[in-house]
Amino acid sequence: MRTSALLLFAFSGSCFAQTATLQSPNGNIKITISDELTTPSYSIDFKNKPVINSSALGFKFKQQAPFSEGFKITHTQQNTQNTQWQQPWGERQTVTDNHNEVAVTFKKPQGGVFTVKFRAFNNGVGFRYEIPKQPGFENIEITKELTEFAIADSQSATAWWIPARGWNRYEYVYNTTPVNDAPLVHTPFTFKNKEGVHVSIHEAALVDYAGMTLNQRRPGVFQADLTPWSDGIAVKKQGAFNTPWRTIQIGSKAVDLINSDIILNLNEPNKLGDVSWVKPGKYVGIWWGMHINTQTWGSGEKHGATTQTTKYYMDFAAEYGFDGVLVEGWNIGWDGDWFFNGDVFSFTQPYDDFDIEELTRYGKQKGVQLIGHHETSGNVTNYRNQMEDAFALYEKSNVSQVKTGYVADGGNIKRIDENGIARHEWHDGQFMVNEYLYNVKLAAKHKISINTHEPIKDTGLRRTYPNWIAREGARGQEFNAWGTPPNPPEHIPMLAFTRMLAGPMDFTPGIFDMGFNGLGDDTNRPQTTLAKQLALYVVLYSPIQMAADLPKNYLAKPDAFQFIQDVPTDWQQSIALDGEVGDFIVFARKERKRDKYSGNDWYLGAVTDEKARTIEVKLDFLEKGKKFEAHIYQDGKNAEWKNNPYDLSIEKRMVTANDKLTLTLATSGGTAIRFKAL
Fold first, then answer.
1. Is 651 a catalytic residue?
2. Active site residue: 148, 203, 435, 478, which one?
3. 0.70 exceeded by pTM
4. Residue, of 7 and 558, whose pLDDT is higher
5. Residues 6 or more apart whose Cβ sits within 8 Å of residue 155
């Protein structure tokens, strides 16, 4: 049913206020846009109760008068859409885009006009500003975006968040606090109100604009806080432009946030044409050894990136069905404290003990590709100057995926400006938003996919540029090698409802040796059971998944390793079945028909925090009338993460869609299941 956006008139004080309203297709969400007191604002109700109270809209500029007071609604335009589109890879193959839309134009008699376009989906809202060409706005410097998110009954709401504008970018342990105690925070910003309604604020289609953080200016009222350039300006534009979409996902249950495609739907369709060369898959790599100090990135006796070692990994990958081998530390620049080597990295010159031509030949012989690596240490000008040659070398070397790195403290990205002066920028400012996308677009010309580490947050651009295949953007597995503290047991069920709402993450799961620093609860190690490491392959979505541990540790546990060999990375369907933020999460995913995968099998992953749990799962997601052989990898009776993480029970049983399974999860434990179609 099409729901109209209605232009209504109401008397408000000494002036007339105009109001436009918009409802979601199912009627559960209502947006009200107003010019009361000639100030643009909006509010959102969910199931007839306020979720976002009246919240300001507009901008402040360096040169022009602000878009705030004195604006009236002059025009509305309605639209509705109910279509489907296909992802070349992803959490699900077919995405439904069902929304109602209203574009509301605000104008000031003395000059200045802008439109805010709202889309109401059944599980949330997106809106963006559209600034038309107009006199006096040929060159625009935005100093502040006035967008607010005024959370209803914030004093009784709980939030889950990480701090923004800090030195460690997005790589923080998540906080659980009352909403009113959250200061300057990154998005996705997730909270639950007293009614149990779950909400997450983020953005979509972040292109040529500053990343949005949220600043709580007064209790419960968060303002969009744009990450500025080094000169203090937030955004620099010329002529007409659209902002990214501000997104507000809403659900009655926590898992409703996950089972939403709002962010993808608010991005433009694929601009790259044929992307059959973008290949999901699994990889191993010369990586974990550096983090646990058995190898080094730099040259010397313990150098990891040697021809000999890479061939060993390629042999392993070929024998056990992995597509690629990541090699870090192959190129000149890693010696010494590489964190400060951004000026000297070469992206075309290997160390003498790394023969890239021979490894290209050997990889083709084995049917395994090199996965490239470009670490910049935050000097993006040095990287930009070499980028074309670097991608040309990789294309020649049969490399189709590259992991990039931008390790630098927040606010310390180094660029050399047009006058030769060194400037230092934030990872999520407008300059770097553009730089990351430039890297992705150039890579596409060489049929290379990009896995960005120390990235700008995902905002769904993988739809538009499907070679942007994964990112980091949160604490990954490496923190379990040396982090202080390591990732806590709640980290994974926390990520599922926060960072993972943005898009795929290259978390690098699959550590089998938990005791490299000793067991217990006070060492740097994964604070999980072995079963939970297996479940990560289903719970934490990425089209490229790493088996992160050393090959010898997989060979020592071949029964558990079988699940990693079996599990795909590309899905026909994904369903978050059950879960609570930071407590537990249960996922079911159906494999997509691709390569060796028939498209008939389902997989399930479940993880918990520090609490042991028993969870009953209905198998009604399986096709009715079909039988499946369930290969169940679960915590053993005596499993617990601190001192007995390896206790793993493996069993097979016949199941159908009519059955239920009782999952018994140990402390920081998990369950991983393959449902093999018969």
1. no
2. 478
3. yes
4. 558
5. 178, 179, 180, 219, 220
